[in-house]
Amino acid sequence: MSTTIHANLRAKKPFLKEWRRRETLAAWLFMLPALLGLIVFFAIPAVRGLYLSLTDSNLLSEANYIGFENYRELLRDDDFGQSLWVTLYYVLLNIPLQTVLALLMALVFDRFIHGIGWRSLLLLPWLMPNVVVALLFLWILDPGVGIVNEMLEAVGLPSQSFLGSPQQAMPSIAGINIWRHVGYTALLILAGMQRIPQDLYDAGALDGASEARMFRDITLPLLRPVLAFVLVVSVVGSFQVFDAIAVTTQGGPAEATRVVYWFVYQHAFERFNFGYASAASMVLFLILVTVSLIQMRLLKANESDLG
Amino acid sequence: MANQAVERPVSRTSRRKDARKGVMAGKSLSVDTLIAWGVVALVAILTLFPFYWAVRTALSTQRELLADPTSLLPVGFTLDSFRAALGMADEETLAAGAAVRTFNFWRYLGNTVLVSTVVAVAQVFFSAAAAYAFARLRFPLRDRIFTIFLACLMIPSIVLLIPNFVLIYDLGWINTYQGIIAPTFFMSPFAIFFLRQFFLGINRELEDAAYLDGAGYFEVFWRIILPISRPPVLTLGIIVLITQWNEYLWPFLVGRDESVRVLTVALSVFRSQEPSGSPDWPGLMAGTILAALPVMVIFILVGKRLANSLTFTGIK
User: Fold this and answer.
1) Regarding predicted confidence, which is higher, A307 or B61?
2) How far lies B285's CA from each of A133, A134, A243, B291, in Å?
């Protein structure tokens, strides 16, 4: 009896091995195009970017290895320091207001509005190209004949320069991007709210809790993992603001909107300091990693209270 | 898993509807509900107004626009700006608005459609193939390779921008379609992650039956996995299409030439050619609306579906 089993196993083994080999081969074939993309357009560029940041590359002449000279130069460069501050300022203008508005919108849709049609409206601005959105608001916020200024004047307020003034340019950019992203953010938060069991609200209602009370004691605590995810994603995106600035202010007026992304763009594609620009992009990368890690730690992003 | 995620909220919504009916019958509309609808109305107005305002401006004539900037309706109604942007203007209007002439809408639309469609089809197909391998096939280092793909999700675009530009430059692909398409053609980490998640939730019985009938891996992938996954694959395809449609910086860097210029790049070039003092607002808004129109059509066709899958799966 036992001999037959052994015989079977011995007979089966080469077959199994052959089968495994075929499965492995098939897997590599299935992954081949994606692997090609990964290696050529992600892995090698990432390493090359790091290497470029250690050179004086300028696309035209031979690149020389110069060690950490670019990074030392960045530390001394007041323009870079200023662009870091401007970026941080933008993130602070953008994220808190956008998140609070999105939370309130999600709450309204979660508790009172149930038609999907209305929800899809939240998505519309996010689907639009940044360039289109920027141009729409360039016109609406025009210092001369923009409709917002006309409305301000109609109620007796002075007209504003918005994108034309160093003080108002960054808040205006933040406003434009909030318009584009708030609905999408609300939808993500709404997705999280929909996963909170209705029973909790029913019980709350039975106890006579108000909507505000239920929001504070049920919705917010149970929403934490989703909020954490939304915050990490939108903060990372916010640090990389570019398109709206490229179309409207081009870093101006008076460098008021020269964010890090614009700084990198200028050095790389206007002055062709590829090495220096790469170093700046690496610094932004490091900042993003640090900020994300801190956020995830603070918000305990990977734990759920729902169980 | 994906199926569960879809079912749970739906059942909850229906329960809510019952609850709402009860409230309506008992106490009539509550103050809370009224406020809620007020918020929705405000959101709708704030969302739609910029588009309406652009249309109204594009249908006005520049001179009357500056004289009457607040009228809710077009002032000095004319289709000239749209005609010019669509290349249908007569000699007279062309002479009047020289800037508009350089906006070759059909060319840019063609380029954008070509680039976005190729990227959407290729990226989704190749990502699906890889996702299938990660979800179903067993091979050495599988999870480690998948982690590497996931790690790429964390690399910000700015880090890859310069080296990828150098690569395309070295290949001599500046101002070519392949230069614009290449970096997003083969995969996106997100697409692989999203599809793998869905494939993991598919019941294996059908596949096992197919293998017993002697089907190969590709046949199973093509005949079973992809057809079953039609809804998420289509949703992903639309998202990739729109993302590529909206892409600005990369095509601006590698495809500024008229022959390969896409709509977003064309719009920004158009805008930068305008005199900064008094741009041709009707012309600029006509171009903007035309560039937004295809996305608007997609939104009308599949907006609900997108909102639904976003709400229920939380895709990025």
Assistant:
1) B61
2) 11, 11, 18, 10
A267 interaction partners in chain B (CB closer than 8 Å): none
What is the tens place of the pLDDT at every residue in A70-98?
999 999 999 999 999 999 999 999 999 99
Per the CB < 8 Å rule, is B36 touching A111?
A: yes
Find out whether A132 and B284 touch, Cβ atoms under 8 Å.
no
The answer to whether residues A256 and A249 touch, using CB atoms and an 8 Å cutoff, is: yes
The reply to whether residue A135 touches residue B158, judged by beta carbons under 8 angstroms, is no
Residues in chain A: 307
Q: How far from B121 is each of A73, A142, A250, CA to CA, in Å?
A: 44, 40, 34
Q: Residue A123's closest CA among B11, B16, B298, B244? A: B298
Domain A76-299 has CATH 3.30.1330.10: no
- In the prediction, which pLDDT does A209 show? 86
CA-based nearest distance A5→chain B, Å: 24
Inter-chain contacts counted by CB atoms under 8 A, chains A and B: 292
Q: Report CB contact under 8 Å: A31, B159.
A: no
| B11, pLDDT greater than 50 | no
Q: Is B181 exposed, middle or buried (0-12, 13-18, 19+ CB in 10 A)?
A: buried
SS3 readout for A204-240: HHHCCCCHHHHHHHHHHHHHHHHHHHHHHHHHHHHHC
**pLDDT score, position B6:** 37
Q: Are residues B153 and B245 in the same domain?
A: yes
Q: Write down the pLDDT at residue A306.
A: 55
Q: Are residues B175 and B258 in the same domain?
A: yes
Could you read off the pLDDT of B128-168 as tens digits, one per residue?
Answer: 999 999 999 999 999 999 999 988 888 888 999 999 999 99
B112 with B235, same domain: the answer is yes
**A275 residue type, one letter:** G
Residue B262 has pLDDT above 60, yes or no: yes
What are B6's strand-pairing partners?
none
Cβ atoms A114, B17 nearer than 8 A: yes
Do residues B236 and B266 share a domain? yes
Q: How far apart are CA B124 and CA B121, in angstroms?
A: 5
Q: What is the pLDDT of residues A137-187, one digit of tens each?
A: 999 998 888 889 888 988 988 888 899 899 999 999 999 999 999 999 999
Best B115, B174, B280, B311 residue to mutate vs chain A (most A CBs within 10 Å)? B311
Burial of A204 (0-12, 13-18, 19+ CB in 10 A): middle
- Which range of residues forms the domain containing residue B256? 105-273
Partners of B54 on chain A (C-beta within 8 Å) are 136, 139
Task: Give yes or no for a contact between B126 and A37, defined as CB atoms under 8 angstroms apart.
Answer: yes
Q: What is the ipTM of this complex?
A: 0.87
Q: Is the per-residue pLDDT at B22 higher than 90? A: no
Neighbouring CB atoms inside 10 A of B88's CB total 12
Specify if B115 maps to a domain.
Answer: yes
B97 pLDDT higher than 60:
no
B176 part of a folded domain: yes
Return the C-alpha torsion angle B234, A131, A269, A284, nearest 10: -70
pTM of the complete model beyond 0.80: yes
Q: Which amino acid is at B138?
A: R
Quick count: other Cβ atoms within 10 Å of Cβ A107?
22
